[in-house]
Design brief:
Low-confidence stretches: none
Largest sheet: 8 strands, mixed
Strand content: 25-35%
CATH architecture of the largest domain: 3-Layer(aba) Sandwich
CATH class of the largest domain: Alpha Beta
Number of helices: 13
Radius of gyration: 22 Å
Number of domains: 3
CATH topology of the largest domain: UDP-N-acetylmuramoyl-L-alanine:D-glutamate ligase
Number of strands: 23
Shape: globular
Length: 407
C-alpha cells in the first residue's frame, strides 16, 4: 500500500518506519513545522491508499479532505501494526485528562515479576525501576514499549494521550474532565471514549458513560472509600487498603483505579497502603523551613493548582502561599496549554502572597495584561529558575509548584 502518515513530531515518524518495515510505501509529512522532505504541497499531488493522522490535527486540514482514501488515527494505525504480533501479557493502556501518570505508577507498584512502565516521567524496567529512556506518550511510543516488554517476557503498562489503541488486555480512562482540541473542533473525552471500541476490558473513572459492548467496569460500582480507607468489591471478592494519599484529591481516583485494575488482573491491591507520592504529583518536602508542594507536571491546570494550594494550607494553616505557575516555553510534550485566563482563575481562587510566572506572559495591550501583571511578583523562563526565586523571596509558609511541564 501507499500510505500517507501525518505529523512527524508526535510519533508519525515511528509509525511510518513501522509501515515501511512491513513493505509499504510511505510518505511522512511534518504538518506543523513544514520540515519534512515530502511537504504538504507535494503530498496533495499524490494518490494514497491510506492516510494516518493524529487525532489532534485540525479535521479540516487540506491533507485530510483532498483524497478519497480512508483516514485512520495514529492510535488505530498502531493497533493495526501490532495485530498478529505476540503482545505483552498483561498489557494495560491508560488515558485521561488527569491522573494517567499516577494511576500507571500505582498499578506498576503492584505488578509482580518483570515489566515495562512507560509514562510521561520516562520508561522504566521493573521490578528494578531502572529508567531506560524518555519519550512522549503518543500512541507511537507503544511500538517500542511493546518490543521492550516482549524482550523480557514481561507485562506492559503504558500511558497514552487522547485515547488508547485497544490492543491491550485492559484499558483505563482516568477522568471525566473534558476540553476541546484539534483547532477547537473535537471533545477530548468523546475522542478517548471512541478509542476504546476494540478493547477487551474497560475500566472507567466515575461519571464516564461509554457505549461499549465488551466487559466494562465503572469505578463507582466497585469502590467504596471513607477518608483514607478504600474497599474494592469485584466478582464477589473484596479487598481493601489504607493510604493517607486517599485524602488528597489528586491521588484519590488514581489509587482507587489502580486498586480496581489490580483486582481485574487478579492482584491484591493491599500493598498500595505503602505507595508514596510521586515527584511533581503533590509530593511534599521541606526546604529552609518552607513546605514545598510539587505539583508541576504535564497535567497541571486550574483545578490541580487550587487543590495543591488547599493541600498546602491544610498543613500550614493561614501562613502565606507562594504560587509558581505557568508553562515552560517550548515544551512540546504538553498537549493542551495553560491559557492566561486559566492561570488568572487559579490565582484568583488561591489568592497567594506571591506569584512567580513561568514562561510566556501577557504583553502590554494584550488581553489579561492589566489584570495579571499587578499580581505577579517575579518572572522566570524555567521551573528551576522559578523555584530558586521562590526560595529567595518566601520568608515563611509554603511554595506551591503548579507549572505545566513534561516531568
Amino acid at each position: 500500500m501507499r500510505i500517507l502518515v501525518l505529523d512527524t513530531i508526535h510519533g508519525g515518524r515511528a509509525i511510518g518506519q513501522a509501515f515501511t518495515e512491513r513493505g509499504d510505501i510511505v510518505d511522512c509529512v511534518d504538518v506543523y513545522r513544514g520540515e519534512s522532505t515530502v511537504d504538504v504541497k507535494t503530498a496533495l499531488t499524490r494518490d494514497y491508499d491510506l492516510i494516518v493522522a493524529p487525532v489532534h490535527l485540525d479535521p479540516d486540514h487540506p491533507l485530510l479532505i483532498f483524497s478519497q482514501a480512508p483516514v485512520v488515527s495514529h492510535h488505530e494505525a498502531v493497533r493495526h501494526l501490532l495485530s498478529g504480533d505476540l503482545l505483552p501479557e498483561p498489557m494495560i493502556e491508560i488515558t485521561g485528562a488527569r491522573g494517567k501518570t499516577t494511576t500507571a505508577h500505582a498499578l506498576a507498584f503492584l505488578m509482580p515479576g518483570d515489566g515495562i512502565l512507560h509514562t510521561s516521567t520516562g520508561t522504566y524496567r521493573f521490578p528494578e525501576k531502572i529508567r531506560l529512556s524518555q519519550s512522549s506518550i503518543t500512541p507511537a511510543s507503544l511500538i517500542a514499549a511493546t518490543r521492550m516488554a516482549r524482550e523480557i517476557d514481561g507485562w506492559l503498562i503504558i500511558e497514552e494521550s487522547l485515547g488508547v489503541t485497544g490492543a491491550g488486555t485492559l484499558a483505563i480512562i482516568t477522568s471525566d474532565s473534558d476540553y476541546f482540541f484539534a483547532a477547537g473542533k473535537k471533545s477530548a473525552l468523546t475522542t478517548k471514549i471512541a478509542s476504546v471500541k476494540h478493547c477487551n476490558c474497560l475500566l472507567l473513572a466515575k461519571n464516564i458513560q461509554a457505549d461499549f459492548q465488551g466487559h466494562v467496569i465503572h469505578l463507582e460500582d466497585v469502590a467504596s472509600c471513607t477518608d483514607t480507607e478504600c474497599c474494592i468489591t469485584l466478582s464477589g471478592k473484596t479487598c481493601s487498603f489504607s493510604n493517607p494519599l486517599l485524602a488528597v484529591p489528586g491521588y484519590h481516583t488514581s489509587l482507587v483505579l489502580a486498586a480496581a485494575a489490580a483486582m481485574i488482573l487478579g492482584i491484591n491491591p493491599e500493598p498500595l497502603s505503602s505507595f508514596s507520592a510521586l515527584p511533581g504529583r503533590m509530593s511534599v518536602s521541606y526546604e529552609k523551613d518552607l513546605l514545598i508542594i510539587d505539583n508541576a507536571n504535564s497535567g497541571s491546570n486550574v483545578t490541580s493548582a487550587v487543590e495543591a494550594a488547599q493541600y498546602a494550607r491544610s498543613k500550614t494553616g493561614n501562613e502565606p502561599v507562594t504560587l509558581v505557575i505557568g508553562q515552560e516555553e517550548g515544551d512540546g510534550a504538553v498537549c493542551e496549554g495553560f491559557a492566561f485566563e486559566q492561570i488568572q482563575a487559579a490565582i484568583d481562587q488561591i489568592r497567594p502572597a506571591n506569584v512567580i510566572w513561568v514562561g510566556t506572559h501577557p504583553g502590554p495591550k494584550t488581553r489579561g495584561y492589566d489584570q495579571l501583571v499587578p499580581l505577579i511578583s517575579a518572572y522566570a523562563d524555567t521551573l528551576r529558575e522559578a523555584y530558586d526565586t521562590a526560595l529567595r523571596i518566601t520568608v515563611k509558609g509554603s511554595i506551591v509548584l503548579s507549572v505545566k511541564t513534561w516531568r
